[in-house]
User: What shape does this take?
Amino acid sequence: QVQLVQSGTEVKKPGASVKVSCKASGYIFTGYHMHWVRQAPGQGLEWMGWINPKSGDTKFVEKFQGRVSMSSDTSITTAYLELSSLISDDTAVYFCAKFDSGNVPLAYWGQGTLVAVSS
Amino acid sequence: QSALTQPASVSGSPGQSITISCTGTSRDVGSYNLVSWYQQYPGKAPKLMIYGVNKRPSGVSNRFSGSKSGNTASLTISGLQAEDEADYYCCSHAGSDTYVFGTGTKVTVL
Assistant: This one.
């Protein structure tokens, strides 16, 4: 069965960087884009972008340009999200998610990773 | 890329039907039949309930249905049950392989 298992809680100071991992299993890792979605405390879902693990191509929302990096390691079927120059507004739960076959959107989700930014 | 607009809250009594709207623009909801809906309980990951405007994934109750007219999509929950109390988010393809979520709606079962 498809599983997306994310890394644990991170506490960072403003200006620092954070790297969140998403370990995938149960499907062909290079066959599906990995999407990243975040949710600030008490707020809604925000789509951030995706990475194509096969080609390394990425696409993300313009607001994150210059601060976000998405990567993957196909040898260990793991996707990564790195966010730099953290500010308090980046405090959120970060989810990885993937489509299902047949172009079914975001059918599988990781459990979420809390990133807390505080001085 | 602005979030799609949803009502902050919708409520209904058990057995009733409720409808949640999701208003976008001609650049997202209005242009693609690629609207999906997600249910989220506090502290949990979202769960896909509807995709492609009106398709249900395997295992999702047929009490959930979706539709779209112009720039507005809708999710209807019929025969409301206590377990339906949760947050609901719409999501639409927004061109160039990007996506945008709605602002979210809290459903309360009275």
Q: What stands out?
A: The radius of gyration of chain B is 13 Å. DSSP finds no helices and nine strands in chain B.
